Amino acid sequence: MRSGLTTILTMQRENKTFLARLCEQAERYDVANIGGELTVDERNLLSVAYKNVVGTRRASWRIISSIEQKEETKGTDEHVGIIRDYRQKIETELEKVCQDVLDVLDEALIPKAETGESKVFYYKMKGDYHRYLAEFASGPKRKGAATAAHEAYKSATDVAQTELTPTHPIRLGLALNFSVFYYEILNSPDRACHLAKQAFDDAIAELDSLSEESYRDSTLIMQLLRDNLTLWTSSDGNDGEAPKEDKPEEEAQAPASEAVAPAEEKPEESKPVEADS
Fold this sequence. Notes:
14-3-3_domain, 14-3-3, two-stranded parallel sheet, mainly alpha, 14-3-3_CS
């Protein structure tokens, strides 16, 4: 009987992983509503799947917004109208995808998270998707998205500081994205630099205790933290390469434009690189 039950549970897990991979291809993500906490593999599949969808739209929005600004400068009203309509279409799509992710997080993933690692992962992800909404929103909607992002990042940080080591890749990725939030959304470069430097210094202090399996991921994110610090503290920090975000765990499944955020999406404007959710 025990053997049969084990087989059934194993099949359910295998089916769930298969569904996640299928969802990634079909751009359907209701797999998160299957009962129980997701495994690390399932969690990463879901994160990368959503990131693939939202990443292309964020890239498109940046490009279109840049073109719109240039056309406004030229005074070509007809072109501006067409471009604005397309930008608003992208924003509607972005808002829907982000809200879908946030609903899954609030209704299915965060309530079932049991480990400190999964709690940090999901709260960080929640902060990221509220941040994506704040990138294109304005007025009260932007303020609401920024406030929600800050609260989620703060919740993730509170758990990370007590349950994850300073060299843990998820804790480092959280610090990376939280600092990007301060820099880009709250326009607070001092706070962004302080957070990024603190995370980098804390990790350096414990580098000798870094486990072999997480060495590559942790040192990569530390390099991204240092790259952003260099970018933000340079005299011409507003021109040049984009700021950096973290990569998803399943980076092989992410599109090339997601591996390093948005330098090629808007090369004329300097943006930090962030950690993918």
